[in-house]
Structures are given as structure tokens and as C-alpha cells.
Amino acid sequence: MSAKTLKPFQELAIESGMNLFTHAKTLLDSAPNDPTSRAHAINHNGYLLIEAPTGAGKTLMAGHLVERFSHVEDVVWFWFAPFKGVVGQTVGFLREEFHGLRLRELQEDRAVAGSRRGDVFVTTWQTVATRVKDRRNVRKDGELNPSIDELVAGLRRLGLRIGVVVDEAHHGFHGDTQAAKFFREVLRPEYTVLITATPDDADIREFEAAMGIAELHRNRVSRRDAVEAGLIKAGVKCAAYFVEPDKKALVDLEGTALRDAVSAHRKLKKSLADLGVSLTPLLMIQVDSKDDEPDTRTESSVKRMKERLAKMGFTEEQVAVHTAKEPDSGLLALANDERREVLIFKMAVALGFDAPRAFTLVSMRASRDADFGVQLVGRILRVHRRLQGRAQAGTLPEPLRYGYVFLADAETQTGLDLAGQRINQIQTEYAKVSPTTVVVRVGAQPPMVQVTEAGGQMGLFQTATPAAEGAGATPSGLGGTSVPAEPIPGSTEFDFGSFFGG
């Protein structure tokens, strides 16, 4: 029995997929030895795209579809995770939730004998898709295991059909890539489930053409469904920091963004305590690599951030780091390790890392890719299970209904801007709960909330209350010199309403 109770929209999506694949099975069974009939059955009924926002339960829906369909069809599945780092997370989730599936290790167990319906191999395209067959061990015969090419052929000789699940299908699985060639020439699956939160129509059309797909069926989950079910937050509020180009050297944008993010984090922590919920929120900090020293493997940006956090009152135990040079072997456990309040990362954590207790993200790194932007924001959209009941009932305090992003240098974050535009195009409901408001900070003046006009214009010089001392910048037009201010301990009295607007 699954540990997770399905939401109505999830059940409907699974039933829809079952109906599609059951019909495909009926067609395949009716003319099993006719290549033309097989092609028609697969190309019209064998492809399903599950399109849903991050946190809506895409993996859960796909897993139920795979498990249920394996009860009525002799099918072995190959489940492709987007990156090696999330294979273990996927295997753990499938093993915990779906006891009707048998998880097998592709590297060690490629025996054809004993294979049965409901077997699932979780792997990545990087493991199997290569131009040279013997460069990766799964593409060559071993003493005990055949190659994956022979494994697939052997499964078919046993009368087993092939199913494929592609998680985050927009990553490297389109056009004429090695992954697409392996899919088309070796796997040749009867049943394919594509999962994505950020579908690109151009890539989808290219994939349909390359695979000869006559009809790609879609199960779309609206953002509104997921929000109303209490699975994802109502939206994301973003603070962007701007400064005149000739004054950038005088302003500590990173320190200001960090200070505000820590203030928000601590206010959220206090709100949870006031609510009586025993949950420590997670603050995620994305640093850049501009001051790193590759020759000595020194990550100056990480070191500098840890020093700043220490000055703000965080202990060493409360701060975790996960980068390519400094990986955290317990990264997956971090999602539930509430001794950790802060996670410093660069790139990898933004893709496939699930931490439902994450509310706040501060980014110091350039992000110009829309797909990456959607993934990055997706890390803070999930609602923790301890809050889902209140979220569904609509009784969560307003600050806990949102995720918060602080951009130290908005000019380098076009990827996040494009991500927002893409989400708005896919789900019009997103625009209704996330009005286009920005925080404008001019010199040492306090932040001003403005609504951008249709062309993205805003007024930089509006009347505002003079800032208090220590804002970290010299007011525009005044003489004298200034040095970047050290970040100060964030206050728990952070006012979300005045900072982000209504």
C-alpha cells in the first residue's frame, strides 16, 4: 500500500494513462507480428506526456501508472533520471512507494533469465547513450551480464514488452542526441511516459518528428490544482536589487540580499513556531565561482559565505555545503535533517533536489537559462507534509503560503525572468497569484514596492523615506566615500507585507 494518499487530480491522470496504454496493448495484441500495425499502435497510443509543475507529484503519478499497468501487461521498465545525483533519490522513492515493482541495478544485474513483469531499471542517459559501445560497461558483455543491447533483445525473446519513463524529459532527450538514438534504435519501447515541468513546444515537435509520433497524448496538471491540493505554494515572491552602474563598487549587493533573505528566513521560522508546527525552514544560498582558484580547488565564494553566515549567528552545524568540489554525501538526508538551516550550493542542488522545508533562496550566481531558472525556483515551491493540511484548508498564515527569492544582481538573472514568463504561458493561473511586483532600492533609500508596467518599466527615483545609517551604500548625488557594509544579523521582525507589497 502506498504511503501517500492520491489527490483527485492525480488519480484522474493515472486513470487516463491506464486507459491509453491498455488500448495500446489491445492493439498490439491484435496483430503482434505485423510491423506496420505495431508502429501504428505505438505511434498513436504509446506516448504519454505528464506535464505538471514542480511539486505536483509527477513521479508519484508516473510510478502508479507503471505499477498498475505492470499488473495487466508483461512489461519491463527503464526509468531515466535526469542526472546521476538523483538516481538514488528516485530508487528510494520507488522502493518505498511501490511494492509491486522490483527495482534492479543495471550496472550489476542484467541477467535475462528470471526477468518478469514489473521489473524497473533506474539509470541515466549518460550511462547508456554513447557512440562507442564498449566505452561504458553496460554497453558491452561481461562475464556474468550481457550488454544492455542484448538485455533488451533477450527480454523481447521472453515475450516481455519494453516501457520507458523519462523524468525531466526536456534535458538532453530531443532531436538527434545520443539519448534519442539509443531510445529509437535499441529500446524501441511500446510504452513511453515523458515527465516534465517545463515543456518546450519546439523540442516536443522535434521529438515527435524524430520518433515518428502521430499523436503525443498529454496529461496536464494545472498549477491551481496543485495549490488547492496543498502540494505547492501559492507562488514565489522575488526581491531584485538594482544599483547604478557607476556605483556598483560602492554597494554590497550580496550582503544586502543575504541580510534580507536571512531576515525573511528567521521570520518564517518564528511564524512556524507561533503556529505550533515543529519544522525548521531551509535557507538556500546559491554562490558564484568568480573568486575560486581551480588549481588549488579553493572555493573562495563558499568560504566567504560561511564567514558571513557565522557573523550573522549561524553555527557551523547549521550550515551545509554541496558543490562539485565539496559534495555532501548526506545530501538526500539533508531534506529531513533539521539541524541544518542553510544550504550553500552552486549548480547541482538546483536540479532534482527535493527539500520541501525550503522557503527562501538567495542567488549570487548568473542564471540565463529559462529551464534552469524554473528548476531553481522549483526547489522552494513544495509544501512540507506538516503544512499540507493547513495549506489545503486555506488556514496557513500569508507569509507561509509563498516561497521567496532574493537576487543579488538582477541583471544577470534573465533566466529566472524567462522562467517566470514560461510558467505564465503554460499556466495562466500563476499570473493571478503572483502579480508582477518588484522591490526597487536606490542608493541608501529604503526599498520601494512597484508594479512594473507592460514594457517592464519602473520609476527609479520616487519619494521615499530616508534610509537609516548602515544601508551599505552612499546616497546618490552625495559626496564622500563608502565601503561595502558587513551584513548584520537578520531581524525576526521582517515585514513581508511592506517589503513585497500586497
Give a short summary of the structure.
Helix content is 36%, strand content 15%. It has 17 helices and 15 strands.
Task: Please specify the SSE layout and strand pairing.
Elements: H1 8-30, H2 35-45, E1 47-51, H3 58-70, E2 75-80, H4 87-97, E3 102-104, E4 119-123, H5 125-128, H6 148-157, E5 161-166, H7 178-187, E6 191-196, H8 201-211, E7 217-220, H9 223-228, E8 235-240, H10 253-275, E9 282-286, H11 300-311, E10 319-322, H12 331-334, E11 342-345, E12 358-363, H13 370-378, H14 385-393, E13 402-407, H15 414-426, H16 428-433, E14 437-440, E15 448-451, H17 496-500
Parallel strand pairs: 1-6, 1-7, 2-4, 2-5, 3-4, 5-6, 8-13, 9-11, 9-12, 10-11, 12-13
Antiparallel strand pairs: 14-15
Mean pLDDT: 78
Distance linking N and C termini: 43 Å
- CATH-level-4 superfamily name of the largest domain: P-loop containing nucleotide triphosphate hydrolases
The backbone outline, from C-alpha atoms, is: elongated
- As residue ranges, the low-confidence spans are 423-440, 447-452, 460-487
The fold-level CATH name of the largest domain is Rossmann fold
CATH architecture of the largest domain: 3-Layer(aba) Sandwich
Structure explained in plain terms:
The chain is an alpha/beta fold and 502 residues long. It folds into 2 domains: 8-221, P-loop containing nucleotide triphosphate hydrolases (Rossmann fold), CATH 3.40.50.300; 243-445 and 452-500, P-loop containing nucleotide triphosphate hydrolases (Rossmann fold), CATH 3.40.50.300. It has helices at residues 8-30, 35-45, 58-70, 87-97, 125-128, 148-157, 178-187, 201-211, 223-228, 253-275, 300-311, 331-334, 370-378, 385-393, 414-426, 428-433, 496-500, and strands at 47-51, 75-80, 102-104, 119-123, 161-166, 191-196, 217-220, 235-240, 282-286, 319-322, 342-345, 358-363, 402-407, 437-440, 448-451. The strands form 3 sheets. Strands 3-4-2-5-6-1-7 form a 7-stranded parallel β-sheet. A 6-stranded parallel β-sheet has the order 8-13-12-9-11-10, covered by helices on one side. It has a two-stranded antiparallel ribbon with strand order 14-15. Strand 5 (161-166), helix 7 (178-187) and strand 6 form a beta-alpha-beta unit. Helix 1 (8-30) runs antiparallel to helix 2 (35-45) and helix 1 packs parallel to helix 3. The protein is elongated and about 70 Å long. The two termini are 43 Å apart. Residues 423-440, 447-452 and 460-487 have low confidence and may be disordered.
